[in-house]
């Protein structure tokens, strides 16, 4: 690379702090060149017969499936994910590619009854799609965007986070091995303010898909507005886990740690606000404490490990800032000492203090993006919904109750895009995913995701007899 903005970046293993790779980051000129290649490839890719495009996507999925062990190893080393999670994430990319491989042949338009002729619609691809992927789940989130975008006939330039580029680069290699034509899917490592900003500003990029912080999402949305460029945003979260007294408290307590501490809490869907009905609060806390203290934090390559490190020293410092020495810590687990960006699973609570003051604290209201969980009591259904909705976010959440009517009432009342009852499910590739309020804009995954990567074209054909 020759751009003055290009540079080398040392990729670090967060569990050992060792440099595991040097990756060259693109500058503005390299980004422009990638977009130019994608724009050129678009003309031929959109013309590929739907059945042939489907076949290529199935071949891509098969290449990912054959490479799951390598992809998982890269994710463990680069992102600090536990090996079990990393294998699931690689498998999710395969599954998403397979799911959307059916889309090219089912990208249906409509015939609309009109007078004097025939009216039909077509689902046309947009062109070049810029995808900006975060560091917390770099592998599956890449797949959620690239698969439907390619299926619809678009080309993709994907910018991974500087911290975690390795699995995205491997996906690009697998795409080429599977026969995806040159320029159709490119991975462009680069810094957000350089390569990411250029993708947003470039007139040949017809859509942006961004997953990351709400602050950066707002900047991207403003940048896209200058060109009336469509954008899909999956942003922050501060999700509630609402536990009613009639629920299976043992199951709710046993599952609450994984719902908050999976991926060391670096998850926009993490249920980091646990709301427990007052009459069951003490019993729940007694059940929760051993579950938290028993979390195995350590080497991500060990199959028995349940939680790995944070992604970086900077992220560890940020998380620690929410748990000062005088923080109301109810109890916490343990974490390794020595190299690695470790932080113990931590539970905060009012601890005899004013509950209202605790609910207004930064730890309860802001997205920490680390293994810190806050627990508060509530009196009744109305108060539970009020506390759950008292946030700028609305991405995910859980409701624990044996009362089906209550489950439906609360689910309809909570302002969140993804809710589960008596479980913590947020993401399935066959169902829509996205947030309310400042947690995002648009929906990914599921049968409707193709709409985010196409425009509807209307064509009227007159059948009126000509008088000439």
Task: Note the beta-strand portion.
Answer: 15-25%
Whole-angstrom Rg: 24 Å
Number of helices: 15
pLDDT < 50 stretches: none
Helicity range of the residues? 25-40%
The major beta sheet can be summarized as: 7 strands, mixed
> How would you sum up the global shape?
globular
Q: Give me the count of strands.
A: 18
What structural class should be given to the helix and strand makeup?
alpha/beta
Distance between the termini: 63 Å
- Characterize the quaternary organization of these chains: single chain
How confident overall, as mean pLDDT? Answer: 96
Spatial order of strands in the largest sheet:
12-13-14-11-10-15-16
What do these coordinates show?
The chain is an alpha/beta fold and 468 residues long. The strands form 4 sheets. Strands 12-13-14-11-10-15-16 form a 7-stranded mixed sheet, with helices on both faces. Strand 10, helix 9 and strand 11 form a beta-alpha-beta unit. Helix 1 crosses helix 7 and helix 3 runs antiparallel to helix 6. It is globular, with a radius of gyration of 24 Å.
Fold topology:
Layout: E1 7-12, E2 19-25, H1 28-45, H2 50-66, H3 68-79, H4 83-101, E3 111-114, E4 117-125, E5 128-132, H5 138-151, E6 155-159, H6 166-177, E7 185-187, H7 192-201, E8 205-211, H8 214-225, E9 231-234, E10 240-243, H9 249-261, E11 273-277, H10 281-293, H11 313-321, E12 329-332, E13 346-348, H12 355-359, H13 362-365, E14 372-378, H14 381-389, E15 396-400, H15 404-413, E16 418-421, E17 440-441, E18 454-462
Helix pairs in contact: 1-7, 2-4, 2-6, 3-4, 3-6, 4-5, 9-10
């Amino acid at each position: 690379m020759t751009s003055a903005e290009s540079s080398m970046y040392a990729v670090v293993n967060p569990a050992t702090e060792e440099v595991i790779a040097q990756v060259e980051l693109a500058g503005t000129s390299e980004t422009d060149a990638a977009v130019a290649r994608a724009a050129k490839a678009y003309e031929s890719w959109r013309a590929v017969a739907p059945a042939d495009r489907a076949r290529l996507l199935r071949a891509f999925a098969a290449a990912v499936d054959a490479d799951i062990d390598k992809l998982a190893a890269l994710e463990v080393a680069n992102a600090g994910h536990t090996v079990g999670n990393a294998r699931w994430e690689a498998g999710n990319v395969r599954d998403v590619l397979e799911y959307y491989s059916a889309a090219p042949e089912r990208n249906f338009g409509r015939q609309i009854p009109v007078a004097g002729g025939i009216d039909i619609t077509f689902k046309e691809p947009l062109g070049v799609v810029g995808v900006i992927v975060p560091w917390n789940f770099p592998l599956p989130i890449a797949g959620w965007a690239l698969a439907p975008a390619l299926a619809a006939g678009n080309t993709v330039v994907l910018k991974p986070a500087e911290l975690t580029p390795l699995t995205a680069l491997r996906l690009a290699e697998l795409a080429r091995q599977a026969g995806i034509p040159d320029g159709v899917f490119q991975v462009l490592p680069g810094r957000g303010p350089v390569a990411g900003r250029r993708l947003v500003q470039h007139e040949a990029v017809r859509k942006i898909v961004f997953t990351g912080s709400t602050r950066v999402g707002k900047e991207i949305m403003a940048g896209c507005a200058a060109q009336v460029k469509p954008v899909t945003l999956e942003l922050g979260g501060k999700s509630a886990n609402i536990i009613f007294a009639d629920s299976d408290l043992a199951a709710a307590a046993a599952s609450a740690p994984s719902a908050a501490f999976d991926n060391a809490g670096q998850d926009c869907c993490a249920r980091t606000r646990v709301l427990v009905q007052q009459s069951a609060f003490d019993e729940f806390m007694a059940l929760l404490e051993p579950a938290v203290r028993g979390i195995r934090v350590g080497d991500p390559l060990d199959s028995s490990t349940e939680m790995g490190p944070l992604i970086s020293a900077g992220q560890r410092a940020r998380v620690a800032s929410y748990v000062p020495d005088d923080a109301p810590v109810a109890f916490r687990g343990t974490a390794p000492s020595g190299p690695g960006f470790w932080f113990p699973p931590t539970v905060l609570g009012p601890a005899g203090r004013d509950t209202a003051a605790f609910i207004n604290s930064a730890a309860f209201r802001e997205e920490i993006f680390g293994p810190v969980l806050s627990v508060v009591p509530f009196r009744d259904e109305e108060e539970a919904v009020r506390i759950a909705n008292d946030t700028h976010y609305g991405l995910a959440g859980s409701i624990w109750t044996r009362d089906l009517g209550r489950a439906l009432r609360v689910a309809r009342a909570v302002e969140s895009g993804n809710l589960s009852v008596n479980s913590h499910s947020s993401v399935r590739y066959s169902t829509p995913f996205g947030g309310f309020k400042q947690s995002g804009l648009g929906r990914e995954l599921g049968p409707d995701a193709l709409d985010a990567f196409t425009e509807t074209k209307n064509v009227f054909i007159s059948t009126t007899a000509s008088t000439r």
